[in-house]
Amino acid sequence: MRVLVVEDEHNLADAIARGLRRRGMAVDVAHDGNTGHEMAFVTRYDVIVLDRDLPGVHGDQICADLAASGALTRVLMLTASGTVADRVEGLSLGADDYLPKPFAFDELVARVQALGRRATPPAPPVLTLADLVVDPARRVASRGGIPVDLTRKEFGVLEELLKARGAVVSSEELLERVWDANTDPFTTTVRVTVMTLRKKLGDPPLIETVVGAGYRMPDPYLP
Questions:
Q1: Residue 78 burial by CB count (10 A; 0-12/13-18/19+): exposed, middle or buried?
Q2: Whose CA is closest to 80, among 4, 3, 12, 5?
Q3: 94-126 pLDDT, tens per residue?
Q4: I need a surface site. Which of 37, 62, 75, 132 has the fewest CB within 10 A?
Q5: Which one, of 119, 166, 126, lies nearest residue 25 by Cα?
Q6: CA 59 to chain CA mean position, Å
Q7: How far, in whole angstroms, is CA 65 from its chain's centroid?
């Protein structure tokens, strides 16, 4: 899942980003409304954690512009004011959820995860292929009943390939969905991650390389 945190309180923004990354998400951070607005329309994010009172472009404007664009990105609006009137106003601007400060971090994570499930075509809560079982919510995977120990990036790549349901996913798409903006776009990290993921999943291999296009995980039981 790719998340953008737009928050002008640097310590809070960095704390949110660190916590979400520990949960396996790819997170970018913007500390003002101008940067946040630009990033929101350059990269396809699943969820934007958006402070309402931002310097530069106001959070309300970012939210309204996203809603008007028809983007699938879901918005979790943060604000120091938690009155009913403020919540109603924020939701009327196009926000999908609203969380007043201060908040419990576990609640923030749960809300981000819930919004992320709504940002893409619905996928089953547990992903399966042949004897491979992947539970994104619990961040666990097993093959033939044997647990497979995966890094956060390996798990993210596996999840994206399974959600594609046999379609080809390019290296560029995987880089965008699993890594953050600090990653060198010319890096070989996707190829290396797929290579180690293949080894960990074992035989018979489940991930195919489509030369010049990317990777896919076709159902071995289908022709």
A1: buried
A2: 12
A3: 888 988 888 999 999 989 988 887 766 656 678
A4: 132
A5: 119
A6: 20
A7: 21
